[in-house]
Amino acid sequence: MENKIKEEVLKLKKEKDFVIIAHNYQIGDIQDVADFVGDSLELSRVIKDIDKKNVIFAGVRFMAETAKILSPEKNIILPVPTAGCEMADMVELEKVKKLKEENKNAKTVCYVNTTALVKSICDICCTSANAVKVVNSLKEKEIIFLPDKNLASFVRRSTDKKIIAYEGFCYVHNQFNILDVKRAREKYPKATLMIHPEAPEDVQLLSDVILSTGGMVKYPKESKNNQFIVGTEEGMIYRLQKLYPDKKFFPLRGKPKAICNNMKKITLKDILLALRGEGGESIFVEESIRLKALKSIEKMIEIL
Ligand code: 13P
Ligand code: SF4
To answer: What is the CA radius of gyration of the chain?
Structure first.
């Protein structure tokens, strides 16, 4: 059945001149039919170079919104409209305004995991791949960083600036703990432990490398090791195993699995329905908000 849907998706994608892009956390079947799979930074950049008007974005809402902000002329379709990001949804506008009021000399850096509206009231955007570089590029000594407190602590350790963190977190990564690390290290003593910076600080400090999902894609190629413990969402294992069939990848946590329920809302059937014009949502961002949010994304892209 799945194979039949896959064939139909590939056929329709070609006939209707669509492009499918997918985040690293999408299920294997979706990664297989995508034209491009990547981390949130790669996906936001690739969108500009795509010469097709119609894009199915297999990811969560803030990612599809970022794509629309950068390429308003494109029809960006989120196959499941309720696929949001719980961390992005934690940000309360009033709290951000209050932080800005209380710290008038600070610049505000927002993680790409935020709504278009939040991006529109921040100075510059960042992703987990470039957060340190973005913060260090600013001349101000005080930085309001939102929404992820764990990514903020990673940045704090890599800069001499004062980081004022919003108290948000990702429920998928924030559940990793020291016991998970201990168990995984015992089970796979030779493996390199790769951790996403959305994991809690104590877990980050026990890792061998701290990487965005894009960083995790590149790292095994350069590493002499052929075993890796993967401290991020489960979908990453499929991506890595497909890229490096001769290396082995183990999840940091076996049970309960580290799964982003929002990412996993999207099925192959949803992609098919979106291609047929029978499902999904064409993303809309109000123009005055888009222009302000664009500034903060463009500032990030400028310094890369
Ligand atoms: P990346 O930027 O590393 O792809 O992370 C996005 C994300 O949502 C992690 O939970
Ligand atoms: Fe958001 Fe966490 Fe899911 Fe990433 S894994 S999309 S941060 S809820």
So the answer is: 19
As a CATH number, domain 87-170+290-302 is 3.40.50.10800
Indicate yes or no: pTM above 0.85. yes
Cα of 118 from ligand 1 centre, angstroms: 18
Structure tokens, 60 = 């969560």
- The atom of ligand 2 lying closest to the CA of 23 is 6
How many whole angstroms separate alpha carbon 117 and alpha carbon 102? 20
Ligand 1 pocket mutation, candidates 127, 172, 230, criterion most atoms within 8 A of CB? 127
Whether residue 90 contacts residue 97, with contact meaning beta carbons closer than 8 Å, is answered with: no
State the CATH class of domain 2-84+263-284.
alpha beta
Q: Which CATH number fits domain 176-251: 3.30.2420.10, 3.40.50.10800, 2.30.180.10, 3.40.50.300?
A: 3.40.50.10800
- The answer to whether the CB of 239 falls within 8 A of the CB of 37 is yes
Tens digit of each residue's pLDDT (9 = 90 or more) over 213-264: 999 999 999 999 999 999 999 999 999 999 999 999 999 998 889 999 999 9
Distance 4 CA to ligand 1 centre (A): 30
